[in-house]
Amino acid sequence: MQLVFASNNKNKIKEIQQMLPDFITILSLLDIGCTEEIAETSNTIEGNAALKANYVSQKYGYDCFADDTGLEVEALNNAPGVYSARYAGEQKNADDNMDKLLFDLDQKSNKKAQFKTVIALNLNKNQFFFTGIAKGKIIQEKRGTEGFGYDPIFVAENHTKTFAEITSAEKAAISHRGIAVTHLIQFLNKFEVKPPTNSAT
């Protein structure tokens, strides 16, 4: 089966496709001819995920899922949260975002943080939500070259390496997005969304 993933973020698409069963193929926004940027105007992570999924389903008619992710830092009243991608400005630059976060946390002893991903799935004219949370802490130096976003400064609970220092498979097993995608897969399997058979008609 095919599902549109309402994103053109190559890192996200690759990461999620690797987690999904073989019978599910992801189409990107470009694959369906959607070149416009979908406005993320909600003040919640759940709201932005729903906005993106609804835009694709309503305008293009596809079953679709969309995700939104935020980094919530306890000492910063859960900022940057829904504004994680543009924390340092509309240029949405990961290094700028990390630099601003480290500056804002510099004088604070509490480094606890969590990543939160929410997936909104529009399937057969119904909408479902799946949430994944990865708790951990922010470290003061960037480490690692894997991953993307805030991964070089985030260490998950009970781990010593940042998300940017582990493989994509290792990250998928413990990350916020991995947990949310696991819930999505369990849902699809539970409702017996299976690949088409090749039997003759």
Q: What does this 3D model show about the protein?
A:
- With 201 residues, the chain is α/β, with parallel strands linked by helices.
- The chain has a single domain, classed as Maf protein.
- The protein has 5 helices and 7 strands, in the order E-H-E-H-E-E-H-E-E-E-H-H.
- Helix 4 packs across helix 5.
- The chain is globular, with a radius of gyration of 17 Å.
- The C terminus is likely disordered.
Keyphrases for this structure?
5 helices, disordered C terminus, alpha/beta, Maf protein, globular, single chain, 24% strand, seven-stranded mixed beta sheet, 201 residues
Topology of this protein?
Layout: E1 2-5, H1 10-19, E2 25-27, H2 45-60, E3 64-73, E4 79-81, H3 94-105, E5 112-123, E6 126-138, E7 154-156, H4 168-174, H5 176-190
Parallel strand pairs: 1-2, 1-3
Antiparallel strand pairs: 3-4, 3-5, 5-6, 6-7
Fold-level CATH name = Maf protein
Count of structural domains: 1
Hey, roughly how much beta strand do the residues contain?
15-25%
Contiguous runs where pLDDT drops below 50 for at least 5 residues: 193-201
Order of helices and strands: EHEHEEHEEEHH
Mean pLDDT: 91
What is the top-level CATH class?
Alpha Beta
Per CATH, the architecture is: Alpha-Beta Complex
What class would the helix/strand composition place it in? alpha/beta
Indicate the overall shape.
globular
How many helices? The count is 5
What percentage of residues falls in helices of 4 or more residues? 25-40%
